[in-house]
Amino acid sequence: MLKLLIIYFSILSCSPGDELYARYGHTALRMQDTENNIDAVFNYGVFSFETDNFYYKFVKGETYYQLGIEPTRYFLMDYDAEKRPVYEQRLNLTEEQSQALAKALAINYRPSNRHYLYNFVFDNCATRPYNLIKSVLGDTIISSYNEWEGCTYREFLQHFTGRGTWEDFGINMIFGHRADIRMHGEERLFLPEALMFHLQSARLPDGTPVVEPTQIAPFTIAHTPWYKTWYFGVVLFVLFMLIVNLSDLRRNKWSWWADAPFILLYLCFFAIAIFLTFFSIHPLVGFNWRLFLFPIIHLCVRLIYILR
Questions:
Q1: Sequence-ordered strand ranges (E) for 15-85
Q2: d(C-alpha 154, C-alpha 25), whole Å
Q3: Does 300 or 129 have the greater pLDDT score?
Q4: Helix (H, G, I), strand (E, B), or coil: what is residue 35?
């Protein structure tokens, strides 16, 4: 007589939200224990803005996230309220593998273990569940998923941030040359959508599917109107400086009030870039040529007055 499983696990892939930290989606593990009437979500993406010096620690790369547990209905209600679809893929585990995964999660949830040093690329809400799944399967996972294979981290992130958005501009300002390293294989699985599609076609060496077939879809990326892009911001900036130049030429007098705020802003950007390059432990940040974009545009426009 076949023994029915009493513990089921699923991967929940949550589509992106409006906030920057939610722009890339989210991954969590769902556990259904039929014997003990438990239906809970294990969430490695729990953090608090109330943490002492949160923003400083975040910029420096010393943000600690933690494993949280909540009833599945509450977890899904939050995403439903934000109109963010959640895709569920049930893991095709044996009873022994399900028990091993449940035990691993219980160990992870111990007070001494539940906090971890968050790393956006190498150790996050998507990589943690996937590594646990690999540890209990005990075999190499083979997948035909090849989207974004050979692309850079920068290109990959731009797709979800939204090319041309001000968030995209800011990220490009602080990302250094390491963001232009090309990704291969499982290096792409730090973002939830990539992990979802990787698992959809994943097999063990004997051909066993890692997840049961289910209906999934690419995450919807919000469209950014042209007037909200940083490209349009550059146009406005150039037009503003041209108007200032024409006024200065007519009056034969330099308008320092127009340059000083921008120069101060450039200095702040450079200071932040230097701090990130030498003191942050974020893997992709660093000094890069894009920091000089606005100062160079500013200088070029001002040459009209300087070289009059």
A1: 26-33, 38-46, 64-71
A2: 17
A3: 129
A4: coil
The token pair that represents 90 in the structure block: 């049930």
Using an 8 Å Cβ cutoff, are 182 and 151 in contact?
A: yes
3-class SS of residue 134: helix
Residues pairing with 32 in the sheet? 8, 39
Residue pair 286/178 in contact (Cβ under 8 Å)? The answer is yes
Lookup result for tokens 């399900």: 98
Assign 214 a pLDDT band (cuts: 50, 70, 90).
Answer: very high
pLDDT at residue 1 in the model = 39
Taking only Cα atoms into account, the Rg of the chain, rounded to an integer number of angstroms, comes to 24
Give the 3-state secondary structure of 222-268: CCCCHHHCHHHHHHHHHHHHHHHHHHHHHHCCCCHHHHHHHHHHHHH
| Contact predicate 243/264, CB 8 Å | no
pLDDT digits (tens, 9 = 90+) for 52-89: 777 677 777 888 899 999 999 999 999 999 999 999 99
Exposed, middle or buried, 256 (CB in 10 Å: 0-12/13-18/19+)?
A: exposed
